[in-house]
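Q: What does the predicted 3D structure of Cytochrome P450 90A1-like isoform X1 look like?
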Amino acid sequence: MMALFITIALLSIPLVAAALLLLRASLRRRLLPLPPGTLGLPLVGETLQLISAYKTENPEPFIDERVGRFGTLFTTHVFGEPTVFSADPETNRFILQNEGRLFECSYPGSIANLLGKHSLLLMTGGLHKRMHSLTMSFANSSIIRDHLLVDIDRLVRLNLRSWSDRILLMEEAKKITFELMVKQLMSYDPGDWTESLRKEYVLVIEGFFTLPFPLFSTTYRRAIQARTKVAEALTLVVRQRRKESEMGAKEEDMLGALLAGDGGGSSDEEIVDFLVALLVAGYETTSTIMTLAVKFLTETPLALAQLKEEHEKIRANKNRSEGLEWNDYKSMPFTQCVINETLRVANIISGVFRRTMADVQIKGYTIPKGWKVFASFRAVHLDQEYFKEARTFNPWRWQSNGPSSNAVNVYTPFGGGPRLCPGYELARVEIAVFLHHLVTSFSWAPAEEDKLVFFPTTRMQKRYPINLQRRNMSL
Ligand code: HEM
């Protein structure tokens, strides 16, 4: 009996020790503090400070001030919830890479309603993985090279050819990226139908910026109505194409892939939500970068001259109306520097929101389960520690002898991890082709005092009027 007692006691020692260790670890975990910061007033938190900060011209006033006081990981309270902000590249990478394990994407209900519940941006788990890779495969380099480039070149020219002597560049860029997305998603050429769809889209996008009180906002209600109209128009297209595909017709576009069941046999509603969100994701982002690249080039004549030289060299080997080919796109190294630099200083996607799925320990702090987290890409992209004279537009920093691998590692304009932007190459090609035809066909000057705020914030002036002179080399 005694022997049995001793055996049990001996066997229990490691178990008890393990339990104690676990308890200690869990206590330690819970004892790790929250990142420092202030939660502001009850309910509103620091939301008002956030909104008023972005009415100034400083690109990151809210984050800059708090990083100065608390460091690159801090706690605040915005839009009704305590939120941890990260301006730290390592933490941002950790957040992106742990998508689906420790963090999941999280959008307010008002945005989810506008996107549609079956959109890729809201999907999680296995379904997200499958649909993300389907989207990636529709916009990868070889598809762009073999199928999409020819339409991008044609539609960009078609647009530029119709320009008058004075245009609103942002408006024109939006028209172009919308037409490109519609063509790539469902093979529709531009016409009255695309233009009236785009008008509704503008209203939907305005709805994204009505936070934090969408239910009281006319803009939001108008956005929801416009979303319904967009969905109705797309449903008609989906039905028609479904009929055609049942009769054996096949189109090599995103809609074709969805109808063929590559996404697991989707319903009309699922396909429409999916398309609506893709159009949102690829439209405003790319057109803003096009416009701001032109703005920065106009303000940096040396860069504009170097860019022109690169494109005129490509044109010199081609007939006037000959389209750009993949090899041409691949011989635009300085253009890529300009695109990189514009994305660094002026990306409208300044970072991403996530929600913690468990208590997360990071850098000596705990972020409790269920908390909101904001990984700020822009704060890192504008940090002097990684980019010398970070707030100056300097495309040469991306040339082969620059920037340090340190800077490249912290550069995430398209996000990363399982939610890496599937349109990153497509966006680059669209911007490069646009710049090619612009600089080889026109000279320009801003038409009036330039009111476009240098860094795009929610208050960005959205037009950028310019006066054009036609040189007519490539159109
Ligand atoms: C300059 C242009 C663009 C920028 C700066 C940009 C940036 C981003 C970023 C940062 C994300 C990650 C969001 C997150 O992690 O929550 C993202 C996701 C996404 N982007 Fe882009 N994007 C651009 C163009 C495009 C284009 C042309 C398309 C069209 C194919 C596109 C489609 C998407 C989609 C569908 C997602 C969601 C991916 C997912 O949640 O799995 N984007 N984009």
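A (community wiki): The structure tokens above were generated from the sequence. The beta strands are 73-78, 81-86, 103-105, 166-168, 351-356, 360-362, 365-367, 372-376, 442-446, 465-470. The pocket of protoporphyrin IX containing FE is lined by residues 105, 120-121, 132, 135, 139, 278, 281-282, 285-286, 289, 347, 349, 352, 413-415, 419, 421-423, 426-427 (CB under 6 Å).
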